[in-house]
């Protein structure tokens, strides 16, 4: 009898633990008031990017809009004052999916935007392949933009060769299968998305969206950053190898790295792996579940993988506000 009762009790707990995140994820469709048609003249493209994938998509969006005659500002949010986001007709914001969610830095930066006064707003997200929770991450960005007074006009997600080092440390073969992304189809999707956003913004339309049921949301609710840090046996800077270029400290979204002292403050690190993925001197050491990790740039070099650039790269120019990754 007791065993049966315990079994039922466990069942209720398990259902609640698994069901609650699903219930949370399953929001109804969100409606927004359309605005009157207008000529879209000024656009702003913003991104947060740790290894350049989201930056590349953002710059391509900007290039397409410039080709359409728009005056476009394009910037990495860490180099952009949120207060200057006023006076734009169309704003697109992009970020990667990190640990099944939008990076914490992005979620705390967006509420610092001024009231956007009905500007058309859109989200774009880049993610690894296979993808995990990319649609809901884009919804999270769009919701934050709408809360600042933007009128949603679209959201899109674009797949990449994932930049998550444990992927090739533990599953090198399946990681290599996706090394051809982004490809020309990805870039065509970006060009098409840029065109659609322009049409929607000019018409004054409002885009309806809703989150979807996703197992990624369940994983997100299980504190993946905490778990990732728990199984990281070592995370340090090798002072002998360090060239003092400052890349790791510049990219670290929480200021957790002191390269001079060679220490990583694990209490505030969010395991985004921007440091190991961009260090040009293999000076960042991370041991994950007993395996030393190889950063993204080093892995690309080691395997001779070259990320395909869109043909507009030649006219994309260098934005004033962007990182040059190593
Ligand atoms: C620490 C870390 C966690 C990641 N978590 C996810 C994830 O949960 N889901 C996913 O689809 N991709 C994940 N990715 C892959 C990135 O979203 C993807 O590679 C993205 O294009 C990187 O963009 P960026 O180069 O602009 O930083 C992760 C990558 C890193 C480094």
Q: Could you state the order of secondary-structure elements as H and E?
A: HEHEEHEHEHHHHHEHEEHEEHH
Distance between the termini: 64 Å
Mean pLDDT: 90
CATH topology descriptor of the largest domain? Rossmann fold
User: Which descriptor suits the 3D outline?
Assistant: globular
- Helix and strand content put the structural class at alpha/beta
User: Compute the gyration radius: what is it?
Assistant: 21 Å
| Percent of sequence in beta strands | 15-25%
What ions, cofactors and ligands are bound?
A: flavin mononucleotide
Percentage of residues in helical conformation: 25-40%
Largest sheet: 5 strands, parallel
Number of strands: 10
Give the total of domains: 2
Fourth-tier CATH superfamily name of the largest domain: Flavodoxin domain
Low-confidence stretches: none
Name of the CATH class of the largest domain: Alpha Beta
- Strands of the widest sheet, in order across it, are 2-1-3-4-5
Please identify, by name, the CATH architecture of the largest domain: 3-Layer(aba) Sandwich
What's the helix and strand layout?
Layout: H1 2-25, E1 42-47, H2 53-67, E2 71-76, E3 90-96, H3 104-109, E4 120-128, H4 134-147, E5 151-160, H5 165-170, H6 172-177, H7 184-203, H8 215-220, H9 224-230, E6 232-237, H10 247-251, E7 257-258, E8 263-264, H11 274-278, E9 284-288, E10 291-292, H12 296-303, H13 313-316
Bound molecules: flavin mononucleotide.
């Amino acid at each position: 009898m007791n065993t049966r009762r315990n079994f039922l009790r466990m069942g209720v707990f398990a259902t609640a633990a698994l069901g609650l995140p699903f219930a949370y994820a399953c929001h109804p469709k969100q409606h927004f008031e359309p605005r009157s048609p207008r000529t879209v003249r000024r656009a702003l493209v913003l991104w947060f990017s740790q290894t350049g994938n989201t930056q590349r998509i953002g710059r391509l969006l900007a290039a397409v809009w410039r080709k359409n005659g728009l005056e476009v500002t394009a910037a990495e949010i860490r180099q952009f004052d949120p207060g200057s986001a006023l006076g734009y007709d169309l704003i697109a914001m992009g970020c990667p999916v990190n640990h099944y969610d939008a990076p914490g830095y992005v979620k705390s930066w967006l509420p610092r935007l001024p009231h956007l006064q009905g500007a058309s707003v859109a989200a774009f997200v880049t993610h690894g392949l296979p993808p995990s929770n990319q649609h809901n991450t884009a919804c999270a960005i769009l919701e934050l933009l709408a809360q600042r007074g933007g009128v949603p006009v679209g959201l899109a997600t674009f797949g990449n060769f994932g930049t998550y080092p444990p992927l090739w440390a533990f599953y090198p073969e399946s990681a290599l299968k996706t090394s051809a992304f982004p490809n020309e189809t990805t870039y065509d999707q970006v060009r098409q998305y840029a065109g659609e956003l322009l049409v929607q913004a000019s018409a004054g339309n409002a885009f309806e969206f809703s989150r979807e049921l996703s197992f990624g949301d369940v994983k997100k609710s299980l504190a993946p950053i905490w778990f990732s840090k728990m199984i990281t046996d070592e995370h340090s800077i090798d002072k002998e190898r360090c060239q003092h270029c400052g890349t790791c400290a510049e990219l670290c979204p929480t200021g957790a790295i002191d390269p001079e002292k060679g220490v990583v403050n694990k209490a505030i690190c969010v395991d985004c792996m921007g440091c190991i993925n961009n260090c040009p001197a293999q000076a960042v050491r991370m041991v994950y579940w007993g395996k030393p990790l190889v950063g993204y740039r080093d892995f690309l070099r080691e395997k001779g993988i070259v990320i395909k650039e869109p043909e507009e790269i030649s006219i994309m120019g260098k934005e004033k506000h962007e990182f040059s990754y190593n």
